[in-house]
Structure formats: structure tokens, C-alpha cells
Amino acid sequence: MTVFDVHAHVFPRLARDEGRVLADTGEPWLRVHGDGTGMMMSGDDEYRPVVEGLWEPAARLADMDAAGVDVQAVSSTPLMFGYSADPSRAADWCDLVNERILEYCAPAPDRLLPLCQVPLQDTARACEVADRAAAAGHRGVHIGNHVGDRNLDDPGITEFLAHCARIGLPVLAHPWDMLGADRMRGHMLPWLSGMPAETQLSILGLMLSGAFERIPETLRLCFCHGGGSFAFLLGRADNAWRNRDIVRADSPRPPSEYTRRFHVDSAVFDPRALRLLVDVMGTDRVMLGTDYPFPLGEQEPGSVIRECPGLDDAERELLLSGNARAFFETAPAPEPAPAAAPTAVAAPVAGSAP
Fold first, then answer.
1. Where is this region: Disordered (predicted)?
2. Which CATH number covers residue 313?
């Protein structure tokens, strides 16, 4: 079976001076050591040690061959989002990053699908950058699950999602800048606990705010990390919707009726958890995601799908590649924007470090 990984990151070679496109302190940038290792940098601060598959396409392709992965959708590392920067500088930064991602994927266009990033803190600029990136060859857009205190149901962000639906650009939403960081010190708890909570918050926010009612159903939206804690807590959300009017005040349907509006990746690392996720979402809404090349990702791509109980060969093929091929298929002709749709431009958000 073909193996198609929808959740794989890249940090192209970007020098400190190039990081100054985004911020005067020169962040973020990549320090390459010359021995196959490197360090993601945020200004003067060391952020995370990394390996060369993150910036060298030949090393990535060798890793993919060794792991039996045929195709990856390649998205920026969330440190690179730049959501706290001045919107004009952030737009220039995203154009630079998007150009480098295209260059990174160019040696193997049939195996590496480039996803762009946008200055999500400014709706108008985000739409413009997405348009340029799509025209240049990007196959989707990678966004964080919030911009400061603005969640995905924020009017400006939902307007951007609607724009992506209109131009047929798939969206990959990734948790980042996790909540409660002051209580999650050590042991990588922001990744172990904060990431699932962030993703659950994003999904429920779109459901309970009525945002899904305002976004075209043609939007192709995928949440990373298995949708976080969403599948396990969906019954709790439905129960609350049925029994408390303040929960259902803005949502005409219970949360479980919106599961057909998005996809999730399979990065849950346990066949039993994946079985629940498939039961909640359906076999056509789950796609392989590994979080390559980070150490908390799936080390044997597709192994959890292959070990998941109760799947037949056709269903395993959907999860390993079929759903991803459909998700990233050539976009339909763009739909015209509603004539009366306003353009929301948000001010940059302070204090939300990449």
C-alpha cells in the first residue's frame, strides 16, 4: 500500500540575518553544525536540537525510503509562524519561508508536497499570501490553532478559512504556543498535555460558536495530533449541548454532527486510541500523520494503522494514503467571494512568541 504522511515538518536553511526579515533580533533561524545535526534558534536562544532531514531534502528522502513512506505533505515548524510580528514584516517573512519550502520540495515534486504559511494575525494579508503561494505551487496552507487569544472561531480567522474554501486550498491546523505553560514545567508537558488541550479547544470552538455554519462546507481542514483529546471527550460535549442552553446558544447542532466538517491525522500512538478515533470520525476522515522528524512523532510510520483492530485492507489503505490523496487533490476552480463579505484586519498580537 502507498504511504502518505500529511504531518511532516521542515525548517529550511535560514540564516540569522534572514530571520531579521521578521524581527530585528533575528528570529527564528537555523544553526547548522555540519555533522548532520543543528539547532533551531529563536534570536540568541537555543530552541530545539534537530537533525538534517529537517533542512536537507536528500536526507528526508532517504529517511522516507527507509521507513517506507512514499509521499509527505511538508509544512513549516510552528516556531516559524511569526504571528506576533508586525503584519507587513510577517507577510514578507512568509513569502520568504514559502519560497524556501518550494525550493526544498523541488527535487522530488511527486513525493514532497509543499504547504505554505501565512501571516494569520492579519486577515487581508493572510489571504494575499495564500493566493500567491497557491499560484506558485503550494498544495495547502499550514496554520497554528490560535493567534494570541484569538481562537479559530475568531471572525478574522474564519474569514481566512472561508477564503481557503473558496480557492480550494486545504488547511492543516497545528497546536502551538500551548496554554497553561506556567503550570507545565519540565518533562515536555506542554507537548504531552498542552497540545491535546489546544486541539480540543480549537475543534469545540468551531463547533459551539457556530463558526462551522459560517464556513463553506467545501473547506478541507485537518487537525494534527489526532484531534487532541477531542474524540475521547466528544460524548461530554454532546451531553453538555443537550442539557445546558448556554452551551448550545450559538450552535444549532450537537458537536457530534460536525465531525464530517474536518479530518484528523492518526498521530495517537496507540491502536486502541486510533480505533476510537476512527469510530468517531469515520474511516474516510483519518489520515496518516507522523510529526516527522521530531522524536515525539511516530517512529514506524503507519504501524499504528496496521495494528489498529477491526480495519480491513481497504480501510487501512484509506488511512495510509487514500484519504490524503483525496484531501490534497487538485483544487477545484475558485468560487467567487460573497459580494458583501467584509475584510477583517486584525491588529498584531503582542506577547505570543513563536
1. 331-354
2. 3.20.20.140
Higher local confidence (pLDDT), 206 or 333: 206
Give the strand pairing for 140-144 and 171-174: parallel
* Residue 319 lies inside a defined structural domain of this protein: yes
pLDDT in tens, 119-172: 999 999 999 999 999 999 999 999 999 999 999 999 999 999 999 999 999 999
Residue 318: partners with Cβ closer than 8 Å, 6 or more residues away:
283, 284, 286
Q: How far is 339 from 288, CA to CA, in rounded Å?
A: 38
DSSP β-bridge partners for residue 5 = 72
Report the alpha-carbon distance of residue 116 to residue 95 in Å, rounded: 9
Total residues found in the chain within this entry: 354
Place of cell 526579515: 21
Among 31, 65, 62, 64, which residue's Cα sits nearest to residue 45? 31
Is residue 236 assigned to a domain? yes
Start-to-end Cα distance in the chain: 37
126 secondary structure, DSSP code: H
Distance CA 106, CA 86 (A): 30
Q: What are the CB-based long-range contacts (under 8 Å, 24+) for 130-137?
A: 130/160, 130/163, 130/164, 130/167, 130/169, 131/167, 132/95, 132/98, 133/98, 134/167, 134/169, 134/331, 136/98, 136/99, 136/102, 137/102
Q: Which grid cell is 200?
A: 480540543
Domain around 119: 76-327
pLDDT, one tens digit per residue, over 186-230 is 898 988 998 899 999 999 999 999 999 999 999 999 999 999 999
Rounded distance between C-alpha atoms, residue 147 and residue 184, angstroms: 20
Is residue 7 domain-resident?
A: no
Alpha carbons 233 and 209: distance in angstroms, whole number: 17
Asked if residue 90 lies in contact with residue 143, where contact means CB atoms within 8 angstroms, the answer is no
Q: Running DSSP on this structure, what letter comes out for residue 330?
A: P
Helix (H) or strand (E) holding 201: helix 195-208
37 has which bridge partners?
A: 51
Contact status, residue 200 vs residue 145, Cβ threshold 8 Å: no
